[in-house]
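User: Structure tokens for both sequences below?

Assistant:
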Amino acid sequence: ATGVKARRISLQAVSGGVTARGIDASDVKLGSITDDVVFEGTLTPRGRYEFMSHSGDVQITIDGRVGFAFEGSTFSGSVRSDLTLENSRTSRNSAARRNGENRNLSGTFGDGSAVINATSFSGSVVVTKK
């Protein structure tokens, strides 16, 4: 999906990835079983954003103008945010500790008005600024 402006967007794939670019919506749910989930868009205050991939990465690119509360987790990948999260909490299993990777990351950017939940079972979760 490219250049979509709507109140709610939900895209799910069983075989293949999901990519949503230029998205302007306050309720977004993207998921894939076998590949990557990519979101590039604008957050809205009080918006809800949920991203899930079982066997791929979750890549979230935002402009950083709207604050958000973030919860990210993975079983065997890593979680990171290029935007500084206040009150951040991380957790690591023993393998992750050896590699300096986070398995879980939560915290708040700015006013925390939007909510982002991102999970991957065997991939990584990355939040970057546009």
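Moving on to the next sequence.
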Amino acid sequence: MERQYQIILYGATGFTGRLCAEYFKSNYPDLNWAISGRNKEKLEDLKQELNLDCDIFIADSDDYEAIQNFVKQTKVVLSAAGPFARYSTKVVEACVEHKTHYTDITGENHWVKSQMDLYQEEASSKGVRVIPSCGYDSLPSDIGTFFSIKQLNKPIKKVEVFHSAAGGASGGTIESIFSMGKLPKEMRDPFVLNPKDTVSDIQRKESQDSLSIKWVKEAKKWSGIGLFSVANTRVVRRSAALMELNQNPYGKNFVFKEYGAYSSRRAAIFTSLGLILSFLIISSPYF
């Protein structure tokens, strides 16, 4: 069936949604697209402010009929509406139902796992591509690992990534972090996204989340806890497992680890301890 739009951006008025809208306008002047979200006034203000040539769809995250209305008119939905467990669940459902491809920028692995359990079989049978975690969570880690291994063109035992960053987190990211705190133990599994029976004893032993304060001479930085490493590591491990299932493995018993990168040992220690304390507070049943 012919679709009216090539892509619809859901959650367009948020921090990342706005960046996506600006990018589409600057780089794809002939793109047939639309923006969508919960607040009509904010969407109209965004369209006027950026002088966008696109249509608007109003759809609350709980209004499945309104979500279906825009989903069935486009080839692809890009969701920037987080926390995704709260605002994008029905969007995924509608995309699978109406054979619309879906992608997002989530780092909420618990939510991704729930959507896989619900829709992977149906989406696969319909030829629908549902590709989450295509933002800072987790493209740099995932595509960076894939690219590096392909450039080396030989089996790799282990990849370690060290991320340094500047700036702060958006409101949606902060809400997502809070939503991931109160999770059952099994959802904190380092291989929570892996297909069944794709983890070796060696991989499980060497892939546990850990704190490592050390000087990394290649990066000329001190390692510590990475803010998004809990999300990124699970995504990369799933990709590695899928590559192996497709007879194109990264390497036997491939291990991926990710850390933060800091300018001093003091910064690595204090930031890591601060993150640990924050995670403990968030996950506390009394919080």
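User: Anything stand out in the second?

Assistant: The first strand starts at residue 5 and ends at 10.
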